[in-house]
Amino acid sequence: MLDVLAFVIIVLIASILAGIIGSLLGLGGGVIIVPMLTLIFGLDIRYAIGASIVSVIATSSGAAVAFVRDRMTNVRIGMVLEMATTVGALSGAALAAWLSAQWLGVIFGLLLLYSAYEMFRKREDGMLYQGKSDAFTERFRLEGTYEDPAMKKTIHYVPRHLAWAFPGMFGAGVISGLLGIGSGSFKVLVMDMIMGLPIKVSSATSNLMIGVTAAASAAVYFMRGDIQPLIAAPVAIGVLIGAFIGAKLMPSLKGSTLNKVFVPVIIFVALEMIYDALKH
Fold first, then answer.
1. Which ranges of 70-124 would DSSP assign to H, the alpha helix?
2. C-alpha to C-alpha distance for 261 and 14, rounded to whole angstroms
């Protein structure tokens, strides 16, 4: 009984830290949760993914409210793109049943390395997020404005290339359903690299989207028995607490600071996941 209680407490504390990182970077916490449960606690990756799916929903619920209140979230963009990610999430959840745990670990690690590479190339703060959009994107009236306390000015941005963002978001949905990470990093990349959104808007909007994406695939994992309450419950509670803390911290941080935190963490986690998968 004591061992079980200790396990729950340790997972809870670790999940709080994962929730803080996840909400700050729009990742959903799963990027940290899955490696933590597999590498540190030695759990089967399928149970880790099941718990991560639940934590992603908790993170989205906790952080999205604060980001919407601060007007960093572009709700219109999130809901338009969610059509593609939901279909992708259902496809990924179905595909996960056909892949071995070893392949899931390798795919997880490689995708994280790519994510870190793209974020390393990310622009610095201070760039103007203005420019000519395309006719298709303009029809949806997705441009927005938000106050940035860290930069002490109002940021206006004009999204572009919405049509190209749809296949990218479908892929992010597949990753979410397959690996249970919310695929927030890839949603951020699509909104940032393709649509030209500021990183804070991308992260905040990603936090809104990841919960919907995860909920679409959670039912599939639950029916397969991959969601274990003893694991998922402390993870969800911890990540939810961390998400609230991260949402409070985000407005005062610079986008470049988020990138500097994101890249080394993701590279380390990615290499650990690949090594652990290949040694079995």
1. 75-96, 101-120
2. 17
CB 122 within 8 A of CB 259: yes
Q: Where are the alpha helices (DSSP H) in the chain?
A: 2-25, 30-35, 45-69, 75-96, 101-120, 135-138, 162-179, 184-189, 199-224, 229-249, 255-278
Mean pLDDT calculated for residue range 6-33: 78
3-class secondary structure, 41: coil
Question: Residue 156 forms beta bridges with which residues?
Answer: 145
Report the Cα 185 to chain-centroid distance in Å: 5
Closest alpha carbon to 144 in 129, 134, 132: 129
Tell me the domain boundaries of the chain: 2-278
221 Cβ contact partners less than 8 Å away, ≥ 6 residues apart: 49, 50, 53, 93, 96, 180, 227
Q: How far apart are the first and last CA of the chain?
A: 31
Cα(58)–Cα(62) distance, rounded to whole angstroms?
Answer: 6
Could you report the per-residue pLDDT of 76-120, keeping only the tens digit for each?
Answer: 999 999 999 989 988 888 887 787 777 877 887 887 787 677 667
Q: In whole angstroms, give the CA distance from residue 133 to residue 144.
A: 13
Whole-number Å distance between alpha carbons of 163 and 148: 28
